[in-house]
Amino acid sequence: MNKQEFLKQLEKHLHRMPKAERDDILSDFVEYFECAQGENDDELCERLGDPRKLAKEYQAQSVIASANETKKLSSMMRAFAYTAGLGSVNFLYAAFVVPVGYIVISVLYIVAVALSVSGILAIIAAIMYFGDALLLWLSIFGSVGVVAVGILMFIGNIFVTRGFNKANMAFLNKISQKIRKAGEGK
Amino acid sequence: MNTQLKKGVLELCVLELLKKKDRYGYELVAGISTCVAISEGTIYPLLRRLKNDGFVSTYLKESTEGPPRKYYRLTARGEETRAAQLADWHAFTSGIGRILGGHCE
Q1: CA of B7: which chain A residue's CA is closest?
Q2: A82 touches chain B (CB under 8 A)
Q3: A153 within some domain
Q4: What residues in chain A have per-residue pLDDT under 50?
Q5: B36's torsion region: left (phi>0), alpha (psi -120 to 50) or beta?
Q6: What would the pLDDT profile of B9-44 be if each residue is shown by its tens digit?
Q7: Could you tell me if A142 and A119 are in contact, meaning their C-beta atoms sit under 8 angstroms apart?
Q8: pLDDT, tens digit, for every residue of A64-76?
Q9: Is residue A61 included in any domain, yes or no?
Q10: For residue B15, what are the CA distances in angstroms to A53, A62, B37, B55?
């Protein structure tokens, strides 16, 4: 392999990275070749190692760094999209457990909010329409219960969300180590 | 030699070389590979990680031969890490030395 081929290979395997990052990485290797001018190209490439493995190492790094940085859903999903190609169990986790988990969590939030709101509306309605005192208090009592359940559900769901995010981060870190190990090869 | 073992120590080697002065990538690669057999490419992802973690900073400096080079400088945080890793290394190697010397039975 010569210098051009090495750089081309590296660039090819870094294609998922943002262009600025990729260019920055490639410039390091261009600099390497410039500094080592006069030496045999093949030998330099031999010394640098497999560009594909290097690309994997960079990609693992970049994915984990961006997921750690923002902890936002979108960057986490992007990270999972990368890792989904790494074995069937990981794929199942990334492709099904994660999205389904977030859907379930979202639905739970909606249900919690809906319960609270409908409870509050029921209280208002009871005050407005029930002249009968017993019926009024019974329905207020019931509605307050519904609101309480809604609020508890919402709070509980916050903890569930945090736990799920944490589990996903742990999974990502594990995967990144796997990618690194795969990158070492020898 | 076991690559996993080597990799962990490579970070300390880079930090240690940067303690003496700022250096550019190839200088670090060449310095380390004169003493230890490594896949030279692996230094660059390592340098990038060190930079992302705030252990080193980079700047460009003109060179007499060819285009400007990217220099790496140890940050205060990097120096802390270097000192801690060095202490770990000494504790570890002296322990291993005692095992190999047959003092740990």
Answers
A1: A184
A2: no
A3: yes
A4: 185-186
A5: beta
A6: 899 999 999 999 999 999 999 999 999 888 899 999
A7: no
A8: 776 666 556 666 6
A9: no
A10: 24, 21, 18, 8
Q: How far is CA B61 from the centre of its chain?
A: 21
For residues A157 and A85, state if they share a domain.
Answer: yes
Statement to judge: residues A40 and A129 lie in one domain: no
The answer as to whether A62 is a domain residue is no
**CATH C-level class of B3-100:** mainly alpha
Q: Number of folded domains in chain A? A: 2
Contact residues on chain B for A65, CB-CB shorter than 8 A: 52
Do residues A158 and A128 share a domain? yes
Q: What percent of chain B has pLDDT over 70?
A: 95
With 0-12 CB in 10 A as exposed, 13-18 as middle and 19+ as buried, what is B6?
middle
Q: Is the ipTM of this complex over 0.90?
A: no
Domain that holds residue A17: 1-49
Residue A34 and residue B39: Cβ atoms within 8 Å? no
